[in-house]
Amino acid sequence: MLKKILLSSACVAMLSTSLFGSGVSQSDCDAKGEEYIFAGNECMQLKVFEGDSNDNIIILVHGSWKKGTNILGRYAPFAESINMNTDKTVVAIALPGYSGSSLNHMPVLEHEAKVSPSATKEYVSFLGETIHAIKEKFEANKITYVGHSAGARMGATLSAMEPGLIQNAVLVGGRYVNSEEDNKAGAISFDNIKDKADKNTHYVLVYGGADKISKPEVTINAYESMKKDGFNVKLVEVPNAPHLDLEMTNKTQEAITALFAE
Q: Residue 162 sits in which domain range?
């Protein structure tokens, strides 16, 4: 009997989660508390570490993970470390389908998609709405964007799509140029629209020496191209580092902290 009750309770919990995850309104989101934000018709969970000032806030954006991954559980120690090192407010975002965030209409950042959502204008525009909403929520004047993998790709593209929105872009293990196949499928990349970017934006491109997903030459080539085009860009190598957790390495954290020491 007890087993049946427990199974029934578990089913109700799963059903509640499913309903919440696919139809969250603005009022539903507001009721969740301060560490949630509604933007682009999605309710996203945040992990916030307050700093001395909200003038320049740091926003952490993850890459592709399996649907339902507790991103904020992974990112909380990382966000806290950056907060302690910089004294800046740090906001980690769980994009739709991760941690406690909704899945109203945006897709999960899945590797299996023919064209990654991170390479679509729709998703990059959605990310822009989210950054605007966070900026307004914290009454920030400047944004330092830290993105890993798909988060780096989207951050780079967004910086060109909405020039001036991001003042510092720390892009870790990303991709910045489409393949011919992606271009034919309508994908968007930084390289496609970089002529629109604000060259006052400070870019930091980070790569791992042992990264097999975004190989070193991907970032090195992007750096050389941006440098040639007159961008304010810095290249950072993390020797022997793989793709996973590249954004959390000491070398990457030092590069983020250095932005506020200059």
A: 2-258
